[in-house]
Amino acid sequence: MELRDQVVLVTGANGGIGSALVSAFLTAGVKKIYAATKKTGTLPGLFSDQRVTPVVIDIANPSSVNTAAQACPDVTILVNNAGINLGSSLLDAPISARMEFDVNVFGTLSMCTAFAPVLKANSGGCIVNVISILAMVSMPSNGTYCASKAALHSITQGMRGTLAGQGTRVVGIYPGPVATRLTEGLEIPKAAPTKVAEEVVAGLMDDCDEVYPDDMSKNVSQGLAANAKAVEQQFAAF
Ligand SMILES: NC(=O)c1ccc[n+]([C@@H]2O[C@H](COP(=O)([O-])OP(=O)(O)OC[C@H]3O[C@@H](n4cnc5c(N)ncnc54)[C@H](OP(=O)(O)O)[C@@H]3O)[C@@H](O)[C@H]2O)c1
C-alpha cells in the first residue's frame, strides 16, 4: 500500500504507541492525520506539523464516534489504537471486564462500523486495529484485558471478511510489552513505541494482514504455531 496521499485517523494519539504512530505516518509522507484524543488539550506539542488536525473522540461514547465519522469524511486509513488495561484478574470481573470491553471491544467495534461507510466512499481504504499478543494467549494477572483483546482479534478477522467486498483492508497489530503508560511499573523487557510504530507502517506498506512488531510478539507467535499448549502453560504462571 502506498502511504503518500493517505488521510489517516489515529485514536489515542496522546498515548505512547499512538503518538509514535502519528510521527511514523508523518515521516512516511501521508497527506493528513487526524490525531484523536479522548479529551481536548492532551495532544503532545510535537505535533506542530500542519498536516496534523486534532479531533476529540471518546471511542466508548457512540455519539462521539458518530460525530467524528461525519467530521472526518476524507479518512482513508483508520487506526484504532486507543485502549485500556486495568491489570485485573478474571476474579476482579465483572467491573474491570466491563470497562475494558466498553473501550477495547465495543469502542473499537463502533469506530469500525461508523467509519466503514467513510472508507467505502473513499475507495475502500484500510482499518488497522492495535490488538495485543495477549489476544492469542491469556496471562492470568491481566485476564480481563486478554479476554477483551481476544474478542477484538475475532472482530478484526470478522471485519476483514465483512468489508472485503467494499475493498477495505483490515489489519491486526499484535504487540508484546511496549514502554508506555500502560506498562508503567512492570519490570520486564519492553519494546520502544517508535520501533513498534515503524513496524506498523512497514507492515502496511508490505500489505500484511497481521503485524507482530517486536521480538517478544514474533517469538510468541512462532511458539504458538509450534506448540500452543506449551505457550499457554508458560503464560499461566504470570
Ligand atoms: N503498551 C503495551 O505493552 C501494549 C502491548 C500490546 C498492545 N497495546 C495496545 O496499544 C494501544 C495503545 O496503548 P499504549 O501502550 O500506547 O498505552 P497508553 O499510553 O496508555 O495509551 C492509550 C491511549 O488510549 C486512549 N484512550 C483510552 N480510553 C479511551 C477512550 N474511551 N476514547 C479514546 N481514547 C481512549 C488514552 O487516552 P487518555 O490518555 O486520554 O486516557 C491513550 O491515548 C492499546 O490498545 C493497548 O491495548 C499496548
UniProtKB/TrEMBL annotation:
Keyword Membrane annotated:
no
What GO MF annotations does this protein's record show? oxidoreductase activity
Q: Does this entry carry the keyword Lipoprotein?
A: no
Keyword annotations? Oxidoreductase
The record, for InterPro entries, names: NAD(P)-bd_dom_sf, Sc_DH/Rdtase_CS, SDR_fam
Q: Which family does it belong to?
A: Belongs to the short-chain dehydrogenases/reductases (SDR) family.
What is the protein name for this chain? SDR family NAD(P)-dependent oxidoreductase
Protein's organism = Oryzomonas rubra
